[in-house]
Structure formats: C-alpha cells, structure tokens
Amino acid sequence: MTESKLLEFSDAILSGGTGRSGTTIIGKLLTRHSKIGIARPTEIKVLTSGNGLLDLHLGRRSGKYRKLLINDQLHLIRFKQRLYGEWWTRDIKLTPNKPEQIPGTQVGLLQGMTREDIDRIYQELKKDFRRDKTRATQSFLRSLIDIHKAGNKKEIWVDTTPINVMRASEIQEFLPGIRFIHMVRDGRDAIASVIKEPWGPNNFEEGLKWWRGRMIKNLNGSLKVGSSMLTLALEDFAINDRENSYLKILKFSNVLDEEVMRKYFEERIRPENVRQGRWKHEADKPNEELGYLYSQE
Question: What is the C-alpha to C-alpha distance for residues 159 and 44, in angstroms, rounded to an integer?
Fold first, then answer.
C-alpha cells in the first residue's frame, strides 16, 4: 500500500462540465505540455462512476443492485465486477465526427496499465479495505495515477470525465490537493452538439432538460471548492478572450508556457472549430425550440 506521505493529489487536475462543453479540448491542450499527461483512457470512470472509488469511500450504493449491497464487502465485490468489466475494457463509443474510429476497438483502463498492474492495486485495496476504506480507496487511485505518470514521464496527471465537476465537493474532501477545471459553454450550443451523439438526448427540448439538470448538479457539486477550481467559458477560451484564458490555464496548472502547447492552442483551438451559435442553424425552428425554451429556464 502507498505510504501515508504520498496520499496527496496536488499533481492531479480533473476537468469536467456538462458534456460537449470543452472538457476533452482542455485535456488535449494540457497534454501538449512537457509536464502534463492525460489519463488513459481520458475518462477513467473508476473514480466517479456508480460504485466507484468515491462511492466506496462514502459508502454510497448505486445502480440496480444497490439493495443487495448490504455491507462494505459486498460493495467491494460490486466495485470489482465493474473494475474488471466495463472499466477495464469496453467497445469504443463511436462519435459521428470521428470517421477514423474503428467499431469494436477496445478502450478502458487497459490503455494505460497492464493486467498485472490492475491485479496488484486491486489486491492492495482488498487487503486494506476492511481496516480503512478511505485510505484503501485513496491509495488505489494514487497507485493508478503513479502508474500513468511512470508510463508517460509527466509530472501532472489530467482526467476529463465530465461529472468530475458534479462531484467536485465530495472529491475535494476525498483527495487532498486535487484541482478542477470547470468548462462551461452556451447551453444552446452544448445541446446542439449532444443531440448528434448516439448516447444523448434526441431533440432540442430533451436536450434543454439534460443540460439544465447537469448545470444545476455541477453548480451544487462545486459550491465549496473555492480556489481549487478554475471555471472557463469555452467561448472565451476559443474566441472572445483567448490570450487571457490561455494564461489563466498556465497559472492554474502551475506551468510555464511552451512552444508545443502554444502552437496547438493557436492552430487547433480556433473560433471556427467551436462553432459558436450552431444552434441557430441546426434547430428546425430555433427561436421556438431553443431561444424561447432557453429564456424560460
């Protein structure tokens, strides 16, 4: 088990938002820096998903089997099922604007560690869980981060799971020193983007409910985080206040500017790529479907 003095997470940054709000973009930018590496997969799931590490720490059961998880040991068994199941390997989630994706490609924790790695840190978790479940779950994540950092030779680790912000207050209490970047976006554009995805709401009205619900949870979940969170509007980052936003990211990450990262920002994070105002063109009746509905919230 990891030594007590190492159970500190100031070398980790979690980006989050509603989804389709720029969480992946910020991760891709940061990982261009020589000191910053992104998690593999970029959304590890094992921290914030149902019956993940955070839920184990809190004793919070969730999902269709939650009534069967009557004690901590059964909760740990459910964690193991998910760890060696869909968190370890699953089919890639296909995205319409990424034709290079190959159906059936396997993604998950296997992208960033070996089976021997995951077996080792799970056995450490299991051994210490009964005695101190908080320490055991912290150490599991600490070991996972250290494995990733050893592989990419980077000093700072970044995960881009959208619900990181939704659970930020809980995470901050669980992981001392952790930092967050909350990416926000005009809800109408986020909705126009998400309804194109096979996993999200199917129309603008459903999308508005989805976005509103997530924003409320994000705001409630991050009320107590304070200076450990940088909130950044995608429109400022890519269009309206580019340089200042870029400098805020450097300062918050505690790194100096570098040519590779700067070049990626200037060449790849462009106003035209963000497609601000796309909702006006993609809704059949934009004023009715989004302009009016948005004003009523």
Answer: 7
- What are the residue boundaries of the structural domains of the chain, listed by start? 4-296
How far is 162 from 23, CA to CA, in rounded Å? 7
In the chain, what is the straight-line distance between the N-terminal and C-terminal CA atoms, in Å? 49
Specify the pairing of strand 156-159 against strand 12-17: parallel
Residue listed under structure tokens 């105002």: 277
pLDDT of amino acid 3 = 47
**Per-residue pLDDT averaged across 9-21, rounded?**
96
Cα(151)–Cα(153) distance, integer angstroms = 6
Residue 163 is given by DSSP the state G
Looking at residue 283, what is its pLDDT? 67
Q: What is the CATH number of domain 4-296?
A: 3.40.50
In the block, tokens 């479907």 appear at 289
Q: Write the pLDDT tens digit of every residue in 118-172.
A: 999 999 999 999 999 999 999 999 999 999 999 999 999 999 999 999 999 999 9
Note the helical H segments in 108-186. 115-129, 133-152, 168-174
Measured between alpha carbons, how far is 239 from 191 in angstroms, rounded to an integer? 19
Q: What is the pLDDT of residue 290?
A: 54
